[in-house]
Amino acid sequence: MATVAEMLVEQLEEAGVERVYGIVGDSLNPIVDAIRRSKKIRWIHVRHEEVAAFAAGADAEITGKLAVCAGSCGPGNLHLINGLYDCQRNRVPVLAIASHIPATQIGTQFFQETHPDRIFNECSVFSEMISDPNQMPRVARIAIESALSAPGVSVLTIPSTVTQEEAPSGQALSMAHPRKPRVLPNEEDLKDLAQAINEADKVMLFCGAGTRGAHDEVIALAEKLHSPVGHSLRGKEWIQWDNPYDVGMSGLLGYGAAQESMEEADLLLLVGTDFPYNTFLPEKVRTAQIDINPLHLGRRTRCDISVQADVKETLDALLPLVEQKTSRTWLDKKLKSQAYLMDKVVGAYTEDGSKLVPIHPEFAAVKLDEAASDDAVFTIDTGMCNVWGARYITPNGKRRVIGSFLHGSMANALPQAIGAAVADPGRQVIAMCGDGGLSMLLGDLQTIKAQNLNVKAVVFNNSALCMVKLEMIVDGLVDFGTTNDEMNFAAIAEAMDIPAVRVTDPQKLEQVLAEELSKPGPGLIDIVTDPNALSIPPKIELGQAKGFAFAMSKQILNGGFGEVMSMARSNLRNIPRRF
């Protein structure tokens, strides 16, 4: 007769699971042994459980299928939590198996005792403990279906003693997964939206990840309304490519004319976005919102008109109801502004970047974008790599851009690259790593070597936590604790038998990237970049400017005049100046 562990693996096979990411150990061993004997599921051994969760999330992002991670009792499954928060906020289908101490010891403060079924409640759509074999296979089925249908994270907590018990007789419950339903807009809401659009002279579209699969419909609406189209970071890969109406991105990482377009519009239409930074959303502009999730409607800014439905379905129904706008004057003005800002501000350090030492990260990002394949997967570390990725990585409808864009965790790029490369081994995967992020989970360079993954870790190595540095400065604080000792990541990678190269000369960067990215298998490119290069947001508040000046004054008084001048030289051309 099958054990509970074997029945669980049988159900995972039935659900189409092909991989489980994790680390073996004590309470998890019966489940891992059942996976070892499976002919359909592969065990992916990582070096840290946090990596397992991030990797599973990227796997699910690439494939759209259920991905699984696992951790042993106590510290093992606790390490999953940061990655699971990220998966939950990204709404990807992930099942986490949290093995537990022996069932008879629960509640006795036994060695490594925690309560995973409680701990994971906040970062999951389903979290339950299987304390009796007779709960199988129903509870496991509910967990799997919950992860797929939400989509989101499900957590199964299973004591080690339970996994070894005999499963109930009969086959595991079969699972017929339904196809994605159509979510159509209410007709009256649609009419209200069409009326508001027809009444407005200047309509601006701001798009998020909810526009996935609706690129052509958004462009058709923009063409009919002569609307500038901005986007959030998560919306970039779905809406920016092949878009003649693009005005860039807003928010802390933003660029281009998106912010000014929002503020000048008669009607701001938020399309499939739960953009969290309400300070960048205008309070006085009439706002409409389309989102499939009703909890997103109006929770960030004013919402005068709301439509709860799938974005593509809504735009298909909306297009015949809106009138063709006749004037392109405002749109052309915003596109002219966008072109200026992209050329003179965002492009400030890319035109002559080959002459700037240390290498400017903007220049490095552009050269990386140019060298990458047309269908590359980019995974991007939180921090300044987010800025350079947002501004310089070019989407084209085939590339993917994955990051911790909602949870904002450091050290996500390498783990997510692992999951993406395992899920699609024939594809080029590029991890844009900050030196701070890579240092946190450095051990999993061993995973890309052991699994022979086609992952290139491109390290923007500035020996600093520059995003934190910027946060301190705008708050009027002298940056403290933001510098790292210089580290040669190429030497570390080579010690792990991973091909690596270190670049300090900007004139050699283009050739190095072209050569290294063309090679199969794992690799690391360590680019030594300017630690003083900071990002200037598109909307600079008076308080931020005062804080910056105050912090610089304190720095000078503390004997840091030279550092202040270096920062000024590194960022002067990033400050917008109007034509």
UniProtKB/TrEMBL annotation:
Keyword hit for Transcription: no
GO molecular function: catalytic activity; magnesium ion binding; thiamine pyrophosphate binding
Domain of life: Bacteria
Thiamine pyrophosphate enzyme N-terminal TPP-binding domain span: 3-114
Entry keyword annotation includes rRNA processing: no
Matches recorded under Gene3D superfamilies: 3.40.50.970, TPP-binding domain
Alphabetic keyword roster: Pyruvate, Thiamine pyrophosphate
A Pfam family it matches: TPP_enzyme_M
Name this protein carries in UniProt: Pyruvate oxidase
